[in-house]
Amino acid sequence: MANGTIAFDTLQTSGQITGTAKSLDTDFVVNGSAKTWCQAPADNASITSSFNVASLTDVGTGNNQVNLTNNMSTATSYPSGCTNNNNGVDNGDSAPANSSGANSASQYENNMGYVNSSGNMVVSDYANFSFSIGDLA
Questions:
Q1: What are the distances in angstroms from CA 109 to CA 16, 35, 53, 88?
Q2: Which of 9, 24, 70, 120 sees the fewest Cβ atoms within 10 Å?
Q3: Rounded to whole angstroms, what are the CA distances from 40 to 67, 75, 83, 84, 93?
Q4: Cβ atoms within 10 Å of 47's Cβ, excluding its own
Q5: Which neighbouring-strand residues pair with 107?
Q6: 49 has which bridge partners?
Q7: How far does Cα 134 stand from its chain's mean position?
Q8: What is the pLDDT along the chain (137 residues), one digit of tens a residue?
Q9: What are phi and psi of 68, to 5 degrees?
């Protein structure tokens, strides 16, 4: 069986289920959809579930590095984000605080924690979920 290319600019549903056909420009699929996501437990020792993630590295307390299966085009071509499962708000501390950013085209790093009553981020190991969007190489 030969491999080939199918070229098209728009995807369209038949509308059989909803009764209304819907269209989507393929640029949205290529440029606007999630390219990776990763769910990890608090110890960052494993991956609970993922998409386009080869491995997860525990960098330190509250910090993990997501290593991609398929690289992004450049380190600056994609944003990433993360959230954690810290439900505890006590001693005047606020809800979870997180930061995420690309280290290279093949990995991004997440920092998990919370902001304390003094306004400082306190890193801590929490179960977490992260994602990236952008263009693949």
A1: 43, 15, 13, 24
A2: 9
A3: 13, 23, 11, 10, 24
A4: 16
A5: 67, 104
A6: 39
A7: 11
A8: 577 777 767 767 776 666 777 777 777 766 668 899 999 998 888 999 999 999 999 999 989 999 999 999 888 878 888 888 766 655 555 666 788 888 899 999 998 888 777 888 888 888 889 999 888 88
A9: -80, 145
- Widest CA span in the chain: 65
> Residue 29's CB: how many other CB atoms inside 10 A?
10
Q: Report which secondary-structure segment, H or E, holds 112.
A: strand 107-115
> What angle (nearest 5°) sits at the alpha carbon of residue 72, between those of residues 54 and 104?
80
Q: What type of residue sits at position 60?
A: G
Q: Which two tokens stand for residue 79?
A: 């944003």
Q: Tell me the DSSP string of 78-91.
A: --EEEEE------T
